[in-house]
Specification:
Layout (H helix, E strand, L loop, with lengths): L1 H19 L7 H13 L3 H6 L3 H6 L2 H14 L3 E8 L14 E7 L6 E5 L2
Antiparallel strand pairs: 1-2, 2-3
Length: about 120
């Protein structure tokens, strides 16, 4: 009887260890920062990797990368600088979290740049 309980406990422990290692529970802020870093480097494949599964089901990696490359090549974007903006009034307990950023880049004209801040 002890042998059965021991085996059951061992199997349960092995299942727990193997299944918990399969699921990543990454901090949303880390994912967001990785997305911004990839964006700044115009690494569109890296940006795609940071998207959630629901978004990836709506747009393929090929579509995503092709679209971003076309946009940024079309406006001759260079020297991207993407900066996360800390929201001082954010409620850490809320389930949905909005992230803000500021985007600067050189484009088309030699000495002009675009600044965009999302709200």
């Amino acid at each position: 009887m002890k042998r059965i309980w021991f085996r059951a406990a061992l199997v349960g422990l092995l299942l727990f260890v193997t299944t918990t290692g399969c699921f990543k529970s990454e901090d949303p802020e880390d994912i967001y920062q990785a997305y911004l870093t990839s964006w700044e480097q115009m690494d569109f494949e890296g940006m795609y990797q940071q998207l959630d599964q629901a978004t990836k089901e709506k747009v393929s990696k090929e579509q995503f990368v092709k679209r971003y490359k076309k946009i940024y090549q079309g406006i001759e974007a260079k020297a991207l600088k993407v900066e996360a903006i800390k929201d001082e009034q954010a409620d850490d307990e809320s389930e949905a979290k909005a992230f803000r950023y500021r985007l600067k880049m050189d484009t088309l004209q030699r000495y002009s740049y675009i600044t965009h801040t999302n709200i």
